[in-house]
Write a structure and sequence with these properties.
With 145 residues, the protein is mainly β. The protein has one domain: Jelly Rolls (Sandwich). The protein is 0% helix and 50% strand. It has no helices and twelve strands. Strands 1, 2, 3, 4, 5, 8, 10, 11 and 12 form a nine-stranded antiparallel sheet that branches. A three-stranded antiparallel sheet has the order 7-6-9, with no helix packed on it. Strand 1 and strand 2 form a beta hairpin. The protein is globular and about 35 Å long.
Length: 145
């Protein structure tokens, strides 16, 4: 069994090359290289007025809003979601999440595949790429036990 405590996650601070309000802190607590067979998970936080950035994912994603209020855009649909609410994002549909509240937003996303490739419209810094591929994420040896 794989377990994780969301309160102990080490988050990575990311920012967009050309979109000043595209900033987040994120990590993938579960994905294929850590031993999952049919799913993966992402956890991210957005400060007020920050967005995750428009992107597509290679796998279907389910969002669970743990804290805060977001404006979610999925394809042509736009909705507000708050703590305790969930939404489904179909694979390869352009989507984005923006913090529209006064508190930090905390989101847990679940993917239907152990590997996900997210392709963003802007580049994430400090890596300088617009692609986040969980198959390319290095796994610290301490997590491979």
């Amino acid at each position: 069994m794989l377990t994780i405590n969301l309160n102990d996650l080490q988050l990575r601070s990311l920012y967009a090359e050309n979109t000043p309000d595209m900033r987040c802190r994120a990590t993938f607590p579960f994905f294929g290289a850590l031993g999952t067979e049919d799913s993966a998970a992402v956890y991210f936080e957005l400060d007020p007025s920050h967005q995750l950035g428009a992107h597509t994912d290679s796998a279907e994603e389910t969002w669970l809003i743990l804290q805060g209020t977001v404006e979610a855009v999925v394809g042509d649909e736009q909705i507000r979601l708050t703590q305790g609410e969930m939404a489904i994002v179909p694979r390869m549909v352009l989507h984005n999440v923006r913090n529209v509240g006064n508190d930090v937003v905390k989101v847990l996303g679940f993917f239907s595949d152990p590997n996900n490739v997210a392709t963003f419209e802007d580049r994430w810094m400090p890596d300088g790429t617009n692609v986040v591929d969980t198959a390319m994420i290095p796994v610290p040896s301490a997590q491979m036990s």
